[in-house]
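Human:
Care to share another protein and its fold?

Assistant:
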Amino acid sequence: MKKIELFLRKILLNILLSFRYSSKPEKVDYQNANSKILFIRLNRIGDALVVTPLIHEIRQAVKSKIFLLADRKNYFIFENNEDVDQVIIFEKGIKGILTVLKFIKDNKINTVVDLHDDVSTTVTFLIAFSKASNKFGLEKENKKIYTKTVPKLNPKSYHVVERILEICKLFSNNCKKEDINIRYPVQKSSEVNTAKFLRNNNLDGIFLVGVNISAGSGARFWGVENYKKLFSFLSTFNLKYVLLTAPDDIELAGQISEGKTKVYFSKNYNEYAAMISRLNLLFTPDTAAVHLASAFKVPVFGIYVKYNTNDMIWSPYRSKFDCIITEAPNLRNVTFDEVKTKFEPFLRNILLENVKQ
């Protein structure tokens, strides 16, 4: 059923792109507080985190009101972001598309910006049929729906954050990339709750390693036995460690920890972020966690599935980093010894730097 749906969506997209659009761009004074920009970033958590540097740069450069159209899977990334004036949650389907088109018209949005690095059928429909006079995006296969584009940097050579940052140029703003990072605000209440968890579990006051076992798909689960070996290895160092898991993976976490390793999970993403911010090192197969660690410049060791793609992996933008990469469709054949060979020197270097500070 999913394959049929994707096939039909592709046909619809091709039909849509067969038309020529005559939308005339409007010269907008973005220093006028009455101007309005709608950024669109659907899909998952990592997809939302990687666009926060761009939104921050635009926020610094304009006085426009900034709206953000997000997905139910990622809207909370923007909820407490001071760079965004209002977050709108997209509801899937024709009704959702019509609701957004009405919102753009009723609120007199003059600029709509596609923050997607690749072509989204849904976003293509939204932008093509919107009443906004300015439609910005990266130059992709659907470029004719935009009034203005900027060339898309080679995904084999450029980090996803840098590719998205090119959109700055459409606002006549060249970003200073050395000052840029993922942005995610942690609330004070989350910091307090995290500090309490660490204190109650005797995990504060010393070098702390977080091992995240959860990722967006089962293909990136490394296996119960591998994680057991990893925690056994960590126990040989003068440090403390905690197992991080999504609520859906609590059973797997129990099999790994066997009651010996402290387990942390939260349904509140802000509290999860607060925990990441308190780590001295993160071990993870999940790219969303990688980007979150980057926001706090927490060193990261990643295990990556790079299957059927030549694109650069989603590494942290600002954190010290090393990784293991497999080109297989899952992590099944990535052995503990293979990971240990690279992880051990990385861990020792981070520990040494921590002692010197």
Q: What stands out?
A: The chain has two domains: 28-179, 189-356. Residues 336-356 form the longest helix (21 residues). The radius of gyration is 22 Å. The domain at 28-179 is CATH 3.40.50.2000 (Rossmann fold).
